[in-house]
Design goal:
Distance between the termini: 47 Å
Number of domains: 1
Structural class: mainly beta
CATH architecture: Roll
Strand order of the largest sheet: 3-4-5-6-7-9-10
Helix content: under 10%
Shape: globular
Order of helices and strands: EEEEEEHEEEEE
CATH superfamily: BH3618-like
Amino acid sequence: MKIATKYHGNVEINSGEILKFEKGILGFHTEKEFILLPLSDDGIFYVMQSVSNGMLAFIISNPFNFFKEYDFKLEDSVIKELELESEKNVVVYSILTVQDPFNKTTANLQAPIIINSKKRKAKQVVLHNEHYNTKHPIFEKQK
């Protein structure tokens, strides 16, 4: 299947790799299908591209690449909705707000993208944790 993308032009994708967001994502409730495309060769940055809207794409990364202590517990309703049977099927990403210069880029740790990699189901989850917000600098100097 061929789709138009914001950063990669027209690309051929495998429909079996499409992520299904039953309720869309925050601010884009009608967008329910996305595909992950690599943005960097190192496997750290990806584009979460809407399958139906070539101009809608988010830069994402695994938050554990930058925040080793990042931790949260998924509510039972999310586990059930995503049909998560094993922790090994859980993949977590954060949507990044890319800044210029790039070293000012931030990650949204308050609303991670949770993916069931086996069933290709995904959901953006809002965490109720006062330690996480929507703009954590990913290149913050270690103290």
